[in-house]
C-alpha cells in the first residue's frame, strides 16, 4: 500500500497536489451549499448561498492572479500561477463568501497576498505565507472598523467538510513527508484547548469535539503550516515551529488589534523560520553538464553568493519553460557537491525514456543561463561523530546525497568506517566511481557486470537488493548507523529489512516521482 501511495503521489508535484485538493474541497462545499439552498431543512453547511460561493471564489482567483501577473511584469520576474491559484483558494476558504462589499475585501486580500510575495521578500524569497498576510491585514482593518472589512471566519472549519479536508491534509503532509509536523501541531493545539477547558471547568471532551469539528486546525496544518518556502530547513526546527504556532493559535490573548488568530500565529512562525533558514533567494548561473553514464547527467551551477547547506540536503530549483507538463516548473534535487566557500553546486539527474518537461528544459540549458533556487533543507545528514560506523544504501540516483557527504569527508580528511551498498540498473560507467575510491568506503555493488573493480569492492550480482542479500553482504549492518536513499520501493523494503535485523536508526531519503 505504501509503495503504491508513494508511486502515485510521486507522479504529481506538491503544488499540483495542494491545488487539486483545494479544488476538490471547494466543489464539495459548493454542492453542500447548493443542497442546503434547495432544501433548507438539510442544514448541511452554514453557508446557504451557492452564488456567493461562486462569486467569492471567482473574485479571489481573478484578483490574486491579476495582481500576481502585474507585479511580476513590473519586477520582470516569471510568475508562478499554480502558487497564485493556491493562495486565492486559501483566501476563499478563510474570508466568508459574499455578494456585496465583502467581495472587494476578498479581492483586497488577494492583491495584498501578491504584494507580500514579491515585496515582503529578501532577494526573491518571500518571508510570509501570502494568504496569511492578505487575511491578516484585512482582519486588522476589520478590528479597526474600517470600510466594513470582514473578519476571517475560517468557514472551512465545519464538521461537514472535515472528511475531505482531513483526506487532503493527510495526502499533502504525506507527499511532503511532514506528517510529524501536522501531528505535533494538532497534539499541542488540542492539549492547550483541553487544559483551557479544564481550568474553566468545562468538560474536556467538548474541547476535543470543538477542536476537530468546529475549528480550522486540520485544514491549517495540512494546507498552510506545511508550505515549504516558509518552513525552517531542519525537522526539529519545523516541529518546534509547529508547537509555537499551535500555542499562539489556541491560547487566548489580545494586544491592540492583534489576537490569537491562526493567520497571526502562522506569520510569527514564518518569521522564526526565516531567521533560522535560507534568508534569500538563490541565483544560480549554469556552467554546463557532464554525462556520467547512458542515462545520468551531472549539472553544475555557480551561485551568486555562498549557499550554506549540510552534505545530504536538497534544494528546490525553478526552471521556467514552455509546454509545462503536470510535473510543473519546480523540483527538488539532492545536492551532489560538497559545501564550498566559492565552488559550484552540482546536481545529478537521470533521463528516463519519458522524461518530464522540467528535465528536458534542465538538460537543454545553455551555459550562462540563470536559474533560481528557493529552499534548502532536509535532515539526511551524517552524524557529527566520525567514529560511528555507517551503512549507506543507494539505489540509482539515490547516490547523490552520499556523493556530497563522502566528498565533504574527503575534503576534511575524515576517516569514517563506511560500507556503501550501491544498486543500479544502468549500464556503462558507475557515477561517482572515482569519488567512492578516494573516500575509502567499502563498496558492495549490485547491477550489470561492472568489469574490474577497485580493491576492497565487492560485486553482489544482478537483480533487486533484498534484505537477505543485504544481510549477507553486510553482516554487521545492525551495528551501523544506516542511511537509505533511492526509489520509494527500495527505501521502504530495505528500511523494514534493516529494522528487522536489529538496526536501531535507519534514516531514509526517497526520491518520490523523481
Please summarize the sheet with the most strands. 6 strands, antiparallel
Mean pLDDT: 88
Question: What is the CATH architecture assignment of the largest domain?
Answer: Orthogonal Bundle
What do we call the CATH topology of the largest domain? Ammonium transporter fold
Radius of gyration: 25 Å
Oligomer: single chain
Q: How many domains in all?
A: 3
Structural class: alpha/beta
Strand content: 15-25%
Number of helices: 17
Helix content: 40-55%
Note down, in words, how this protein is organized.
The protein has 514 residues and is of the alpha/beta class. It is built from 17 helices and 16 strands. The protein starts with a helix and ends with a strand. The mean pLDDT is 88. The strands form four sheets. It has a six-stranded antiparallel sheet with strand order 8-7-10-5-6-9, covered by helices on one side. A six-stranded parallel sheet has the order 14-13-12-11-15-16, with helices on both faces. The chain has a two-stranded antiparallel ribbon with strand order 1-2. The protein folds into three domains: 2-276, Orthogonal Bundle (Ammonium transporter fold), CATH 1.10.3430; 282-377, Elongation Factor Tu (Ef-tu), domain 3 (Beta Barrel); 390-510, Rossmann fold, CATH 3.40.50. Helix 6 (130-143) packs across helix 12. The protein is globular, with a radius of gyration of 25 Å.
Amino acid at each position: 500500500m505504501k509503495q503504491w501511495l508513494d508511486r502515485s503521489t510521486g507522479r504529481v508535484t506538491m503544488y499540483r497536489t495542494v491545488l487539486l485538493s483545494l479544488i476538490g474541497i471547494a466543489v464539495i462545499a459548493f454542492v453542500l451549499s447548493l443542497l442546503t439552498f434547495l432544501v433548507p431543512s438539510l442544514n448541511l453547511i452554514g453557508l446557504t448561498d451557492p452564488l456567493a460561493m461562486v462569486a467569492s471564489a471567482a473574485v479571489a482567483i481573478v484578483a490574486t492572479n491579476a495582481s500576481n501577473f502585474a507585479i511580476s511584469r513590473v519586477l520582470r520576474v516569471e510568475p508562478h500561477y499554480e502558487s497564485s491559484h493556491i493562495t486565492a483558494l486559501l483566501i476563499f476558504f478563510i474570508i466568508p463568501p459574499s455578494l456585496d462589499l465583502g467581495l472587494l475585501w476578498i479581492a483586497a486580500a488577494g492583491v495584498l497576498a501578491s504584494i507580500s510575495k514579491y515585496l515582503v521578500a529578501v532577494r526573491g524569497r518571500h518571508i510570509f505565507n501570502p494568504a496569511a498576510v492578505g487575511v491578516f491585514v484585512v482582519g486588522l482593518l476589520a478590528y479597526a472598523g474600517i470600510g466594513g472589512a470582514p473578519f476571517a471566519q475560517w468557514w472551512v472549519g465545519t464538521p461537514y467538510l472535515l472528511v475531505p479536508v482531513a483526506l487532503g491534509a493527510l495526502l499533502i503532509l504525506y507527499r511532503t513527508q511532514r506528517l510529524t509536523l501536522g501531528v505535533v501541531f494538532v497534539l499541542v493545539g488540542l492539549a492547550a484547548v483541553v487544559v483551557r477547558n479544564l481550568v474553566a471547568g468545562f468538560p474536556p471532551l467538548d474541547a476535543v469535539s470543538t477542536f476537530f469539528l468546529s475549528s480550522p486546525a486540520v485544514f491549517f496544518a495540512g494546507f498552510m503550516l506545511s508550505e515549504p518556502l516558509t518552513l525552517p530547513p531542519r525537522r526539529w526546527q519545523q516541529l518546534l515551529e509547529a508547537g509555537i504556532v499551535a500555542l499562539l493559535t489556541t491560547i487566548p490573548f489580545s494586544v491592540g488589534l492583534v489576537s490569537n488568530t491562526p493567520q497571526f500565529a502562522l506569520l510569527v512562525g514564518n518569521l522564526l523560520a526565516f531567521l533560522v533558514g535560507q534568508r534569500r533567494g538563490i541565483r544560480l548561473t549554469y556552467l554546463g553538464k557532464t554525462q556520467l553514464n547512458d542515462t545520468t547527467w551531472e549539472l553544475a551551477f555557480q551561485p551568486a553568493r555562498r549557499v550554506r547547506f549540510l552534505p545530504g540536503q536538497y534544494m528546490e530549483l525553478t526552471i521556467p519553460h514552455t509546454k509545462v507538463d503536470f510535473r510543473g516548473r519546480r523540483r527538488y534535487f539532492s545536492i551532489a557537491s560538497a559545501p564550498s566557500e566559492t565552488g559550484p553546486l552540482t546536481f545529478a539527474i537521470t533521463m528516463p525514456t519519458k522524461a518530464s518537461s522540467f528535465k528536458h528544459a534542465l538538460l537543454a540549458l545553455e551555459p550562462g543561463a540563470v536559474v533560481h533556487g528557493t529552499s534548502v533543507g532536509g535532515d539526511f545528514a551524517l552524524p557529527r561523530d566520525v567514529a560511528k560506523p555507517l551503512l549507506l544504501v543507494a539505489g540509482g540516483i539515490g547516490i547523490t546525497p552520499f556523493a556530497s557527504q563522502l566528498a565533504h569527508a574527503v575534503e576534511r580528511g575524515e576517516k569514517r568506517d563506511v560500507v556503501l551498498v550501491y544498486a543500479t540498473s544502468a549500464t556503462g560507467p558507475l557515477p561517482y566511481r572515482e569519488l567512492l575510491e578516494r573516500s575509502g568506503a567499502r563498496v558492495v555493488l549490485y547491477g550489470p557486470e561492472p568489469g574490474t573493480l577497485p580493491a576492497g569492492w565487492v560485486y553482489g550480482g544482478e537483480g533487486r537488493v533484498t534484505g537477505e542479500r543485504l544481510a549477507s553482504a553486510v553482516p554487521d549492518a545492525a551495528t551501523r548507523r544506516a542511511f537509505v536513499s533511492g526509489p520509494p520501493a527500495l527505501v521502504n523494503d530495505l528500511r523494514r529489512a534493516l529494522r528487522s535485523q536489529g538496526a536501531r536508526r535507519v534514516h531514509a531519503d526517497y526520491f518520490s516521482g523523481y
